Structures are given as structure tokens and as C-alpha cells.
């Protein structure tokens, strides 16, 4: 064999075990057992949203929403945060981001309920986007925890100042949710409806704060109830689709968007 032939020839490297014939065939990669955390985040979001929204519309004369504090911390907050963190390894940016955001929302709105002893801004929290809402709860909780000193800063101020501050806070989260709605336009009808109703819920609650309007707050509560049931529907659909032999399936209205 000439030097040129050797240079042109392909060389196949072998491991020592292969040369001795002692290796076995490589094992087939085992399928991933990472489950879909979306249902956990959606059910946590829906349940917390439903309870707070029912309090917002004064169901059975309830005006003190303190009972929901534990629910918002552990279900609306912690469960959504975990669901959001588990969504990221699955490549679901929207689900992960939203869950974490709404997680903070749960923590933040709870102390608000305890402090004001009135209606609280109970809005839903949902999939990557739901991680964002986890952060919303926590931030709002920090604002209203007495030890933070934030609430005490408004003690001698007119009531309208705190209401205006909360209204601006809700407007910002309305804007964030609107962005999630835009991103969801390429996914399915169910998620578009979920984020769309949540956006309007935040807008109504913000209007209630700015105008000291009980009617606007109750409207936000009604919209929140609708949002919660949409989240339940999407969560149940994801749970059923994860089963090998589901009893039935719930369509989400997937959109076939052309990609360039």
C-alpha cells in the first residue's frame, strides 16, 4: 500500500475492549421518566384563583379573605414555583416563566388580604408563565407583611395613595400577562383564553383600586372565576393526555400556525 493510499484511507478507532472482543452491545437509552408538571401548576393556579375570586365577589357575605392565606402560600405559591422550575428542563419557556411569576403573586396577595380585611386581588396563576406569577405572590406578600415596614409607610398617608400604588402594581402585572397572551397566540385556543381572561381580570382589579370601585373589584372576581375554570380544563386535559389509556380526551384547540 502506497503512502498516498494510507493518507486517503479512513481510519476507524477502536476501544481496547472492542479489539479484544470483550464488549457487549451498547444499551438502548432508557426513555425519560420526567412527567409533565403542567397539571400541577394549572390546578394550583386554578384552585387559588377560584377561592380568591369568590372572596372578591363577596360570596356568602365573605369580606375577610384571610382563610386563603395558607392556600396561596403553599398551593398558589410553592406548588406553582416547583411546577415552573420543572417546566424549564422540559424546554417550556412560557409555562416555566408564568408559573414562577404567579407563584410570587400568591405570596404577595395573601398578606394584602390579611392587612386590608377587604377584597384581595385574587387572580389566577398558570404553565412557564406560572412561575412568574409565583414571584408576583411573594413580592406582594413582602409589600404587606408588617415586618417589612412597607405598609407602615402609608399609615399616615391618604387611603388613595396606597390604592393608587396597588393599582399601578396590578397594571404592571396586567401588562406582563398581556405579553404571555401574545406568546400563547401560536399555541392553542385554551391558553389564549386563559391568559386573555387573566389579563382582563388584572385590568378590572386595577380599576377597582384606582377608582375605589366595589363593582370593578367584583367584576374582576367574576372574571377570575372564569379564568380558574379555564385553567382547570387545561390542567385536566394535560393530566388525561399523560395517561396511556385515558377515559376521554379534552381538546385544547391547537392552532396550526405556519412557520417560516
From TrEMBL:
Transmembrane helix in keyword set: yes
Compositional bias per record (Basic and acidic residues), positions renumbered to this chain: 1-10
UniProt subcellular location: Membrane
InterPro entries: AceTr (IPR051633), Gpr1/Fun34/SatP-like (IPR000791)
Transmembrane segments: 38-55, 67-86, 135-154, 166-183, 189-207, 219-236
Chain spans, region Disordered: 1-30
Residue stretches of biased makeup (Polar residues): 15-25
Protein origin, superkingdom: Eukaryota
GO CC entries: plasma membrane
Any Pfam family matching the protein: Gpr1_Fun34_YaaH
Keywords: Membrane, Transmembrane, Transmembrane helix
Family: Belongs to the acetate uptake transporter (AceTr) (TC 2.A.96) family.
Alphabetized PANTHER family for the sequence: ACCUMULATION OF DYADS PROTEIN 2-RELATED
Record-given protein name: GPR1/FUN34/yaaH family protein
Amino acid at each position: 500500500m502506497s503512502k498516498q493510499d494510507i493518507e486517503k484511507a479512513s481510519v476507524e478507532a477502536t476501544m481496547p475492549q472492542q479489539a479484544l472482543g470483550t464488549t457487549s452491545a451498547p444499551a438502548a437509552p432508557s426513555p425519560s421518566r420526567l412527567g409533565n408538571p403542567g397539571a400541577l401548576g394549572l390546578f394550583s393556579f386554578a384552585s387559588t384563583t377560584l377561592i380568591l375570586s369568590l372572596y372578591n365577589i363577596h360570596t356568602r357575605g365573605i369580606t375577610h379573605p384571610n382563610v386563603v392565606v395558607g392556600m396561596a402560600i403553599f398551593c398558589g405559591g410553592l406548588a406553582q414555583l416547583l411546577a415552573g422550575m420543572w417546566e424549564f428542563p422540559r424546554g417550556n419557556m412560557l409555562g416555566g416563566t408564568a408559573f414562577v411569576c404567579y407563584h410570587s403573586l400568591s405570596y404577595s396577595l395573601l398578606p394584602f388580604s390579611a392587612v386590608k380585611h377587604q377584597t384581595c386581588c385574587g387572580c389566577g396563576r398558570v404553565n412557564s408563565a406560572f412561575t412568574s406569577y409565583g414571584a408576583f405572590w411573594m413580592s406582594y406578600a413582602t409589600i404587606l407583611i408588617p415586618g417589612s415596614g412597607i405598609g407602615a409607610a402609608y399609615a399616615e398617608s391618604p387611603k388613595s395613595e396606597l390604592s393608587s400604588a396597588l393599582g399601578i402594581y396590578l397594571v404592571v402585572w396586567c401588562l406582563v400577562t398581556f405579553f404571555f397572551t401574545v406568546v400563547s397566540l401560536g399555541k392553542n385556543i385554551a391558553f389564549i383564553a386563559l391568559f386573555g381572561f387573566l389579563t382582563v381580570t388584572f385590568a378590572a382589579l386595577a380599576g377597582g383600586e384606582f377608582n375605589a370601585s366595589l363593582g370593578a373589584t367584583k367584576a374582576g372576581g367574576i372574571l377570575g372565576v372564569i379564568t380558574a375554570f379555564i385553567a382547570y380544563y387545561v390542567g385536566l386535559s394535560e393530566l388525561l393526555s399523560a395517561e396511556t389509556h385515558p377515559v376521554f380526551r379534552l381538546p385544547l384547540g391547537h392552532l396550526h400556525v405556519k412557520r417560516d
